[in-house]
Amino acid sequence: MKAVLIWALVLGGVPQLLLAQDSAAQALPRVVLSADGKDFQLEDASQRFYVWGVNYDHDRDGRLIEDYWHDEWPTVEEDFAEIKSLGANVVRIHLQLARFMATASEPNQKNLQKLAELVKLAERTKLYLNVTGLGCYHKQDVPAWYDEMPEADRWQVQANFWQAVAATCKDSPAIFCYDLMNEPVLGGGKEPKQWLVGPPLGDKYFVQRLTTDMAGRENKEVAAAWVKKLTDAIREVDSHTMITVGVIPWAHVWPNAKPVFYSPEVSQPLSFVSVHFYPEKGKIDKAVAALHVYDIGKPLVIEEFFPLKCSLDEADEFLRKSHPITDGVTSFYWGMTQQEYIAQGGMQAALIARWLERFSSPSKP
């Protein structure tokens, strides 16, 4: 749903050792659910935590983090420092399945170690990580063995991915949450036998099917089975980190649509609600009304937000009106500062620069 791009098992001991050796983790409190499960708070404190974050989904050239974090690590360090300077407290990273699973059952140890280093960087920078997984954003990178698998085998690979990632991250208080998959969908639509839902945005496929054969099942039945399998896999190695799923809010498209992943039948294993909103010009109240559909008694995070289809003032209006029922907002950062966008020139760069200025201002909603 990132249409803004039109613009622009071996669980390994090494990663755990890297995390354990870093004393910076001691200074960063873990973010947990409140006792009533309705808010976030800092562990062992009554202080409420409000997510003010960015998606770090690609760099200025459209590269995914695994494309450059081995050879250009100083760039990642610089980006995290810039994100911190914006006033953000959470960074949403997007991990690609093909970069973390060498085979159906064997994790990629080199990238797990790099993930452990990224977690240490987050601890030092005092930023929390929303670890979003199972990405297949670049279709050309998806291995044939994964694409050709039937549903059950594919889900098992996904469970193996999450066990490896969770085993690497579980001991760090910098891990805010695991997001099982970006914008999963069920059956239907064009080309229902394709796992990736097109057309791509830019060169990336952000929407992915959970199954290509509903076999007479209801959407909630499939979604519940998938959520349970992956959350069970994570809980085998990590009993405490919060888990969510970032979804397309279909109530924003069709006012009578009801949540699937955040229905009572599906949402029990999920710690909080994550939805993606791009309000349209002149339709701010419609977007706010759609957001209320996802107010189910759990913390509610707008996990993707950008003034793509509305003015900056309308974006502010949406955030202001949504604030009473939300527990956070996550916008975007693509490796460039406000000053760099201004120097670049052009309408697109000017808009992003102005948004970054507002995002970093002290008058957050």
Describe the protein in words:
This is Glycoside hydrolase family 5 domain-containing protein. It comes from Blastopirellula marina. Keywords: Carbohydrate metabolism, Cellulose degradation, Glycosidase, Hydrolase, Polysaccharide degradation, Signal. One of its GO terms (cellular component) is cell surface. GO terms for molecular function: beta-glucosidase activity. This protein is an alpha/beta fold and 365 residues long. The protein has a single domain, classed as TIM Barrel (Alpha-Beta Barrel), CATH 3.20.20. 34% of the residues lie in helices and 18% in strands. It is built from twelve helices and 13 strands. The chain has helices at residues 14-20, 73-85, 97-100, 109-125, 144-147, 151-169, 219-235, 250-253, 284-292, 312-322, 338-344, 347-359; strands spanning 31-33, 40-42, 51-56, 90-96, 128-135, 175-182, 184-185, 196-197, 207-209, 242-247, 273-277, 300-305, 328-332. It has an eight-stranded parallel beta barrel with strand order 3-4-5-6-10-11-12-13. A three-stranded mixed beta sheet has the order 7-9-8, with no helix packed on it. It has a two-stranded antiparallel sheet with strand order 1-2. Helix 11 (338-344) packs antiparallel against helix 12. The two termini are 24 Å apart. The model is unreliable at 1-25 (pLDDT under 50).
